[in-house]
Amino acid sequence: MRYRNRLARRDLAMLYNISAEFADSLDGRPPSDRARSAVLSSIPDAVLVSGQITGEAARMEDLEAVKRVLPSTAVLANTGLEHDTVDEVLRIADGCMVGSALKVDGHTWNAVDPESVKAAR
Hints:
This protein is an alpha/beta fold. Helices cover 32% and strands 11% of the residues. Helix 2 (31-42) packs parallel to helix 3. The model has no long low-confidence stretch (mean pLDDT 89).
């Protein structure tokens, strides 16, 4: 938040990943408790819930638990969204991040696949 303020960019959204797919939390609390703590202390614009690794879906139970304790905060599914899971995820989450599902062969480091993008419309 200090960096956002230093940039004088109040329009810059603050998204807090409370279950980062690239790390393991030293905090043994469940994601819902970590999310509540982040909102109380840091006032994020949205909370991100991730799967265990890049490209792996967040557990629906985690999304549900976080949204249940943060009904007034945007909760986004951050990893592993697929064309056939969007409806299910958006019944719980307020939005989602999409990456690998739009890449060639579904791999994170590949180029964007125009056909996957067209299919997502």
